[in-house]
Amino acid sequence: MAISPSIPRTLARRSIFSAGEAAAAGIHPQALARLVDRGTVERVSHGTYRLPGAEITEHHSLVIAASAAPKSVVCLLSALRFHDVTTQNPSEIWLAIERRSRAPKLDYPPLRVFRFSGRAFTRGVEHITIEGRRVRIYSLAKTIADLFKFRHKVGLDVAVEALRESIRSGKVKPGEIDPFARICRVREVMRPYLEALVG
Questions:
Q1: For the whole prediction, is pTM greater than 0.85?
Q2: Would you say 124 and 142 are in contact if contact means Cβ atoms under 8 Å apart?
Q3: What residues contact residue 107 under an 8 Å CB cut-off, 6+ apart?
Q4: In this structure, are residues 145 and 194 in contact, taking their beta carbons and an 8 Å threshold?
Q5: ∠ CA 120-125-129 to the nearest 5 degrees?
Q6: Looking at domain 60-198, which CATH architecture does it have?
């Protein structure tokens, strides 16, 4: 794909970019609007843009969400899907934000926002590069503990199946889950299921 000379290389290397990143790269908001009018740039959502023909992956919606809310963390069902432990494909992107943070708003993709606090928010975060962007996502071990913590929202059956599949596949060990089970205060809830799997 030929890149317009009006697009800085820093932006051309990314599948999407924000209006703020465009401004930081030297593109004035009015110039960005003209690029959109000419079809040189596509508007994905409010404040989020991409180049026509940009190479995107199956996780493109995660990249859009991370661009709109860079301090958020992909969590619960969306994280489980990323770690390839479930066949469920949620229509929303499930994001964790710090308890006092303002919830991000996007035209697309739809978001489901959860407020975490303290170590439950900061621990177990992995930094994954997707389409040239850094995406914050909870590790599989942390995600399993979170599923049990939010079992009334995701379903206990989903949490148990994720635990079972993760351990049986060797993707995670019980000892890796335990610190997060303590942080999420679900150690006793998880105990019988863990004992059934490793006992």
A1: no
A2: yes
A3: 45, 46
A4: no
A5: 155
A6: 2-Layer Sandwich (3.30)
* Digit-coded pLDDT (tens) for 94-120: 999 999 888 888 878 899 999 999 999
Residue in this structure with the two tokens 């110039």, named with its chain if needed: 31
> What is the band of 1 on the pLDDT scale with cuts at 50, 70, 90?
very low
One-letter identity of residue 18: S
Q: Which of 180, 110, 118, 105 is nearest to 149 (CA)?
A: 180
The total number of residues shown for the chain amounts to: 199
Pairwise CA distance, residues 50 & 12, whole Å: 9
Cα–Cα distance between 183 and 189 in angstroms, integer? 13
The long-range contacts involving 5-9, CB below 8 angstroms and separated by at least 24 positions, are 6/31, 6/35, 6/40, 7/35, 7/40, 7/41, 7/51
Record the tokens describing residue 1, joined without a space: 């794909």
Question: Whole-angstrom Cα distance, residue 159 to residue 80?
Answer: 10
CA pair distance 48, 100, nearest whole angstrom: 24
d(CA 127, CA 78) in angstroms, rounded, equals: 15
Q: Where are the domains of the chain?
A: 9-50, 60-198
